Amino acid sequence: MGCAASSPTKGDGSGKKIRKPKNWKHPQPITKSQLMQMREEFWDTAPHYGGRKEIWDALQAAAEADLTLAQAIVDSAGVIVQSSDLTICYDERGAKYELPKYVLSEPTNLIKDS
């Protein structure tokens, strides 16, 4: 039995629904392979920025999934979404996770590999 002033909880704790990131442009045109290399380097080094490896793994899986699956991943991992495009998130212990836009979507000036 709850307090008269209490409200039902959402159960997932995230509070925000994930959305696709806004369009962005890289400083210079890049190829798909260059973008993939940047992403690989980020995910390889991400745990060194702090936080827990399992949260980084969940964020990577969410970044690479469609929006519905991404929402389920962050909800089940207990990720608190500060910015609905996943650029800023927190875990249940308060550790901050910042994701660059290039791991979440492709730039508008992406060029074909030659």
What does this structure look like?
Residues 16-25 have a biased composition (Basic residues). The model is unreliable at 1-14 (pLDDT under 50). The chain has a domain at 30-102: Up-down Bundle (Bacteriocin As-48, Chain A), CATH 1.20.225.20. The chain is α+β, with helices and mostly antiparallel strands. It has a 3-stranded antiparallel sheet with strand order 2-3-4, with no helix packed on it. The chain contains 3 helices and 5 strands.
Provide a quick synopsis of the model.
With 114 residues, the protein is α+β, with helices and mostly antiparallel strands. The protein has helices spanning 32-45, 53-63, 67-77; strands at residues 30-31, 80-81, 88-90, 96-98, 110-111.
Fold blueprint:
Blueprint: E1 30-31, H1 32-45, H2 53-63, H3 67-77, E2 80-81, E3 88-90, E4 96-98, E5 110-111
Parallel strand pairs: 1-5
Antiparallel strand pairs: 2-3, 3-4
Which percent range fits the helix content? 25-40%
Which CATH architecture of the domain at 30-102 is right? Up-down Bundle
Summarize the biggest pleated sheet.
Answer: 3 strands, antiparallel
Within the CATH hierarchy, at the fold level, what is the topology of the domain at 30-102? Bacteriocin As-48, Chain A
CATH class of the domain at 30-102 equals Mainly Alpha
How many H/I helical runs? 3
Q: Mean pLDDT, as a whole number? A: 87
* Percentage of residues in strands: 5-15%
- Give the tally of β-strands: 5
Shape: globular
Instruction: Tell me the name of the CATH homologous superfamily of the domain at 30-102.
Output: Ub domain-containing protein, DC-UbP/UBTD2, N-terminal domain
